[in-house]
Specification:
Structural class: alpha/beta
CATH superfamily: NAD(P)-binding Rossmann-like Domain
Number of strands: 9
Distance between the termini: 18 Å
Shape: globular
Radius of gyration: 17 Å
Number of helices: 8
Number of domains: 1
CATH class: Alpha Beta
Length: 215
Amino acid sequence: MTPHRVFLTGGTGYIGSRLAAILSARGHEVTALARKESQHNLPPNCRAFLGNALDGDSYATAVAGANTFVHLIGVSHPSPAKARQFVEIDLKSAQEAIRVAAAAGICHFIYLSVAQPAPVMHAYIEARKAGEQLLRASGLNATVLRPWYVLGPGHRWPSVLLPLYAIAKLIPNTRESAQRLEPVTLRQMLSALEAAVEDPPTGVRVLEATYIRRL
C-alpha cells in the first residue's frame, strides 16, 4: 500500500473526523480543512488547515501538496426544507473543491454523492448530480460514492425500515430500487472511503450502495 497525501474537506464532521483518524493510522498524510471553532474535532495526528469550504482560494495552497482530495462537505441532516442550502453549500463547496483540485493537478478526487434516482429529496439529489457533472467535466480521475443514508451513532432511525427493504428486495419490480436505496452502515462507508483512497482509478468510478454494503 502506497501512502497518499490526502486533503480532506468535511474532516471535522460525522464521517470525516473518523475517516481522518483511519487514514492517518494507516500511514497516510492527512490535511483537513477546518474552521477555527471546529478544528478540535480532528484527530491529533491530522493536520488542520484553516479556511472556508465555499472559497477555494482560502485553502488552495494546502491542496498543492496533496495527490488525493476527499470532499465530504454537506448540509447536516438534509431535508426538503433545505433546498437552497444544497445549492449554496453542497454544490458551491463541490464547485470550489473541483476547481482547486484541477488547478493543483490532483491525481484522484473522491466525492460523496447520493443514490439516484429516488422518490424524495429531489433538490438534494439535483445538487449532488450537478457536482458529479462538474467532476466529470474537470477531467480528474475520480471516485463517486452514492449511499442513500448512513446508519451510525445518532443516525439510526431508518433502521426501523430495514425489514421493508428486505421485503422489497424479494419483489422483482422493487428489487433494484431497494438495493440502491437501502442504508449503509458507518463502518461500511468508512471502509469504502478507505478503499477508494488506496485504490485510485483511471477515469471516473461510481460506487453504488450495493458495493459499499459488501465492505
